[in-house]
Each structure stands twice: as structure tokens, then as C-alpha cells.
């Protein structure tokens, strides 16, 4: 059965999953790259971004990489908030802008982009962005169909993850707590009082200083 | 040199160090005992509360107990907020009430209780509660003198710890993150953006599910 999975969602000690003041130049606002600094040295990330064979065998292979690698296993489609596609809000000012992800986005699957302002599907390499004004249940139904028997990844950002957690649609939630205090931005945990009652939680601290929490939903 | 140390300050995943709705009957508000559940099974706690020899050798002795035991080593005085003494606010309705801690409080040292409403010192067993309207710097100067060359423990609550962190007076900060989402209460991290820049941070996850963070202040 298709599961809905959240992977590598990084939050600060004070629970912010993204910073304040997001722009095209600063997708994470004042947080900058700090929430993902644990991810960049991993073999998984290096091999995603490296050119040709030069990236082969490079990168760390410890617990951070194990979690990074799990992100892509068995995924057939993604659901993301509009903010993960681009910084715009309201009606699209320019449909020619093709998002933050370049000509070969790393999703390699259908991606349902949640927005109140639908626009035509956008095919970039192996990724198809589908812009839909849909509830969590509707988006999951569509993505499940697109995933063809594989799982669906819920790609964030935090407000979207929160909405799906509130609707109790998330089966697997991997949160990475980074030891920084951001002070402002968008919080992950707001409105989720008692979340732990619906999940088994496993926790491991990485030698790099981050803490991986895996929330596994009790079988339905 | 005397250090100011915070130990075993437990917070939820969403950063609340105490719940909402504190009363005499519910010192932690709606959080109940959940933030300290990691602490109760430790040998350190069992031997603090056990009667005579029957508690000898009982209790867990893993990483949680190691951190629990470190709480009391080399401490000569404590500073605490009024809320850790009792739930009252404003002028003391009744000085006959002697706080939450019984006839032999577990501090065994002078304790500076920060309050805008001073009252006479209160001696209970080996503990002397001294009620002072003092700034963090003033309270630390007094407690340092009382500690007689040993360290001073900053006992909480979260608002008090925050004030001392803002004043950059804390040398050692042990925070325990408990995998629950409280949703409401008093937050520890508010107003402390960039705190990590002043500390080295070491993190370990306990098999019991909590995560211990040790913040060590760079030498002055």
C-alpha cells in the first residue's frame, strides 16, 4: 500500500523549518543553508550534484548519508507546497520562470505543486510539475495514482507538512534537528499538540551534531 | 572559577519547558510529569526519594542517570525563579506556605529565589531559600559568594534561564529534548537567535528516546 513519507525535513532547535525573508536569491531566508549543512557532505548529495564520474565514491557514508539515501528509495511521486517551487505568491507574474530546480530537477517523477493559482503542467527533464488547487486528501489521491504503486514523498515546506499531519495522512516523518536557534521563520510543530500519540518515534544523534527523529505511523 | 550551570532542563520537541495552566496541584500545567519521565527511573532520582536502604542500588544507570548525577556535583548554591518555589504571583498571600519542596528540600544549599516580592529567608532542613528582587548579574554575584568556591546551579524555570542566557552568564547548559509536542506553555528558546555561536554543543540520544544537548560556553 502506498505510504506518504516526509524525509530530511530539517528544523532548528527552536522548531523553525525555514527562515524569515524568503526571496529568489535566499530560498531559506535568513536561515541560509544552515539547516541543510548536514546534508551537503553526504555521498547521496554529492552524487546528485556531481558531474560525470568525478563524484563517484566521494562524500560521507555515515548515518546522515543513510538517511539522505533513504529519501529517494521507492518514491513514485512528490507533493510539495508552492514555496518549494518558487518564492512567488498570488497570481503567477511570469509562467516562463521554471522554478528553482533547473533543467533537470532532482525529483524524476510527477510532482504535485499545491497552489491556489493553477497553471499548465511543466515538464523539465524527467520531472513533471503539476500545479493544483487541492486539499491534502485530494492531492494525496492524485499523487498516489501517479506513483503507480510506489510511495509518495511529501516534500514540504513546513506549512504543507503541518497540514498533512493535521489531516493524519503522514505515515513516515523524518525530522532532522539542527543545533542552531533561528529565532524566526516558519515553525513546524505549531498546532500539532499530542502528535507523538499517533507515532512510534526512534531517535539517533549523528556525530555531525544533528539529531534524526523517525516518526512511524501506527498501522491503520 | 565559579561556573553557572543549568542541568536537566527538559523541553518538548516544540521547545516548551513547562505547560500551560500551572497550579499548586499541577506544577507543570498541562505538561504534567511528561517532561521529567526520563529522570524518574534513574538511580540518582530513586536514591534522592527512596527511604532508608531500600532504594540502594535501584534505578537505571545509563546515560540518563549519568546526566542526572552530574546535576549535583560541585554545586554550592542555586538560583531559581519564583515559579520553581511555588505557583503564587504578586504579593505573597501567605508566608506560612513553604513551597513545593517539603521539609527537606533536595537543594542542601543556599537558594536565591528571584522575586519582585522579597520575604524573610526560609530555612528548611539543609536548604535556605533567600527571596531577592535582583537582576541576573546581582543574583549571580550573591550566589557565587554563597557557593564558597563551588559552582552555582541555575535551576529554572525557562524564563529565568532565558534571562541569564540573554545576559550571557551561563557557562554550562544541559537541555533534554523529550519527544512530545506540547503545543503551549513557556518556550525556552525565544529571543535567543544565534545562541549556538557562543557555545560548543555536544549531543547524544538516549535509548529511552530523549536527547541530551550539552552547551559549553567558550572560555571568557
Portion of residues in beta strands of chain A equals 25-35%
Strand order of the largest sheet of chain A: 5-6-4-3-7-1-8-11-10
* Uncertain runs of chain A: none
N- to C-terminal distance of chain A: 11 Å
Average pLDDT rating of chain A: 94
Helix percent of chain A reads 10-25%
Largest sheet of chain A: 9 strands, mixed
- Report Rg of chain A: 17 Å
Output the helix-strand order of chain A.
EEHHEHEEEHEHEEEE
What structural category do the secondary elements of chain A indicate? alpha/beta
Shape of chain A: globular
Largest interface: A-B, 27 and 27 residues
**CATH architecture classification of chain A:** 3-Layer(aba) Sandwich
Tally the helices of chain A: what do you get?
Answer: 5
Question: Could you name the CATH homologous superfamily of chain A?
Answer: Dihydrofolate Reductase, subunit A
Name of the top-level CATH class of chain A? Alpha Beta
> What's the domain count of chain A?
1
Pfam family, one (chains A, B): RibD_C
InterPro entries (chains A, B): DHFR-like_dom_sf, RibDG_C, Riboflavin_Biosynth_HTPR
Organism (chains A, B): Cellulomonas edaphi
Protein name (chains A, B): Dihydrofolate reductase family protein
Descriptive notes:
Two copies of one chain form a homodimer. Chain A has 220 residues and is α/β, with parallel strands linked by helices. Chain A has one domain (4-49, 58-89, 105-217): Dihydrofolate Reductase, subunit A. Chain A has five helices and eleven strands; from the N terminus they run ββααβαβββαβαββββ. Chain A has helices spanning 43-49, 63-70, 82-85, 136-147, 158-166; strands spanning 4-12, 16-18, 75-81, 110-114, 122-124, 127-132, 151-154, 172-178, 186-187, 199-205, 211-217. In chain A, the strands form two sheets. Chain A has a nine-stranded mixed β-sheet, with helices on both faces. In chain A, strands 2-9 form a two-stranded antiparallel ribbon. In chain A, strand 3, helix 3 and strand 4 form a beta-alpha-beta unit. The first copy, chain A, is globular, with a radius of gyration of 17 Å. The first copy, chain A, starts with a strand and ends with a strand. The interface between A and B is medium-sized, with 27 and 27 residues.
Amino acid at each position: 500500500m502506498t505510504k506518504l513519507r516526509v524525509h530530511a525535513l530539517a528544523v532548528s532547535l527552536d522548531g523553525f523549518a525555514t527562515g524569515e525573508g524568503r526571496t529568489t536569491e535566499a530560498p531559506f531566508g535568513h536561515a541560509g543553508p544552515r539547516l541543510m549543512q548536514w546534508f551537503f557532505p553526504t555521498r547521496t548529495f554529492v552524487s546528485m550534484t556531481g558531474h560525470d564520474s568525478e563524484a563517484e565514491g566521494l562524500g560521507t557514508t555515515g548515518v546522515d548519508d543513510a538517511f539522505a539515501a533513504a529519501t529517494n528509495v521507492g518514491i513514485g511521486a512528490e507533493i510539495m507546497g508552492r514555496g518549494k517551487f518558487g518564492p512567488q505568491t498570488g497570481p503567477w507574474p511570469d509562467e516562463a520562470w521554471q522554478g528553482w530546480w533547473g533543467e533537470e530537477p532532482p525529483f524524476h517523477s510527477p510532482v504535485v505543486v499545491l497552489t491556489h493559482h493553477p497553471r499548465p503542467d511543466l515538464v523539465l527533464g524527467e520531472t513533471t510539475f503539476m500545479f493544483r488547487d487541492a486539499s491534502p486528501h485530494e492531492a494525496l489521491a492524485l499523487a498516489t495514482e501517479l506513483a503507480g504503486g510506489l510511495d509518495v514523498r511529501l516534500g514540504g515546506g513546513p506549512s504543507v507538512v503541518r497540514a498533512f499531519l493535521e489531516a493524519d495522512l503522514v505515515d513516515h516523518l523524518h525530522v532532522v534537528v539542527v543545533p542552531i536557534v533561528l529565532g524566526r521563520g516558519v515553525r513546524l510543530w505549531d498546532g500539532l499538540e499530542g502528535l507523538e500519540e499517533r507515532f512510534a518515534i526512534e531517535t539517533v544523534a549523528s556525530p555531525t551534531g544533528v539529531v534524526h527523529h523517525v516518526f512511524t505511523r501506527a498501522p491503520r
